[in-house]
Design brief:
Layout: H1 4-16, H2 29-33, H3 35-42, H4 47-56, E1 75-76, E2 91-92, H5 96-102, H6 107-113, H7 123-136, H8 148-158, H9 164-173
Antiparallel strand pairs: 1-2
Helix pairs in contact: 1-3, 1-7, 1-8, 6-8
Bound molecules: zinc ion.
The site of zinc ion has 7 residues, from loops.
Length: about 180
Amino acid sequence: MPWGSLRLYAVQHWLRVPLPKDGKPYAPGFFLRQKNGFISGIGRESRQGILRLIYARRCVAHGCETIIPENSAGDHLIPVALGGRNYVANFVPLCRPHNSSKGKKDLLEWWVVRQWPAVGLPLELWCHYCRLNWQLLSHETLSSDAPLYLVAFLEAAKNLLPSDGHRKALDMACSIKEIYVKPR
Ligand SMILES: [Zn+2]
């Protein structure tokens, strides 16, 4: 499925938006109305989010929250082997046991393998992951497939939406081929 990271980005955006005044979730049209916002949003940098992650120094593994030592270099959010770079934006705070558990896996691949719930992934990290992926996966073109773990995580993420109508609208909003040609 192409555009996997865009769909993932849209779901975390949905999860961040406060409920309207009547306390009910937004209708499926939310996704279609926001489609241009998703595309410009995923193209931005997560500078503040990265800094918050660094300063919090808490392991982000599900249910862990161990404070990691100041001299810890953490781990790569997206492994170098998959195009992740050795810079601060690709940093994910993990304690030593979780660092070695993650090993060379992509963050979401690891999350899926551990069978942790999508809802347990901190939204800021989720957002940042999508943005990094979007930058890195310049090969994630309209014709290519997203990696299987990304699809698996996305399916779990879509289950957090209130109805099939929402899921359908999400797919439609993020598959409008003509609205965006990804620059290299
Ligand atoms: Zn940990």
